[in-house]
Amino acid sequence: MDTLSYVTVDVFTSTRFEGNPLAVIADARGLSDGAMQRIATEFNYSEVTFVLPPESPENSARVRIFTPTMEVPFAGHPNVGTTYVLGQQAEIFGKPVGEKLRFEEKAGIVEVSLKRNGARVAATAIRAPQPLTVGDTIAEETIARCIGLEPSVIVKTTHAPVFASVGLNFAVAEVSGLEALAAARPNLAGFQAAAGRQTTSGHDFSLFVYARTSENPWHIRARMFAPLDNVPEDPATGSASAALGAYLVSLAPDADMNVRITVEQGVEMGRRSIIALDVVKSNGIVTDVIISGSCVAVMRGEIILQD
């Protein structure tokens, strides 16, 4: 009987059964693309990662990320969680595990670091692999239809709804407050219509909506909906948080900034997650986005590949 080992972790939390679950296949050698997709579909988590030897010896590993329906070039919580899992090992494909790792991914090289408390991995941090790109604006009526709200609750004071990416593309939109955020419900027909109209390449229409206050603008409450990827709602989305954080800092009037942003997500699902972002802006350009968070191990097991 051929089997494959896996580990699951809850990401962006230190409390088991909160945060965003992730399955990590720490040695995926020999798996076909189709097998990876079938395994990801079987787990039905927002993502599953498959770790392979790097193509270049200067890097630590090649990491492939699959949703239940497709492979994606980059995502935040899979990188944070994969770093946590690999950081528990003494070696990765024969190389000692250091405090910094480099992952080869579809979006480019992802640099990651381990924060230890003694021998224990306390948290991990990743650097977004691409600079901020901002795409087309989106009508508030489109956003409202996707999540069953009135267009009047879509806030355009800081920005109109828009596509943004630091490695993976998301629609981002602000709503008028926590009441509107809590009332959001994904409408599949709305998402299908929105995806059919979009011209921005990359990913099915995935929507990151958020609320914040003028008193504490860098503490954000958010929700992410991606029903076209079989993810009705995601408890923690590091790549979307990073894109939003980079975009908001880019819009701020100061030319030079170093901002710590906290994104709280998953509350409405009962899976509270805390995502920390450190965004650097120099001469009016966002130059660096670091995504960090804690993880906790949940399960270990084996996948039966064949009898």
From TrEMBL:
Active site: E47
Listed name of the protein: Phenazine biosynthesis protein PhzF family
Superkingdom of the organism of origin: Bacteria
Family classification: Belongs to the PhzF family.
SUPFAM superfamilies assigned to the protein according to its UniProt record, in alphabetical order: Diaminopimelate epimerase-like
PANTHER family listed in its UniProt record: ANTISENSE-ENHANCING SEQUENCE 1 (PTHR13774:SF32), PHENAZINE BIOSYNTHESIS PROTEIN (PTHR13774)
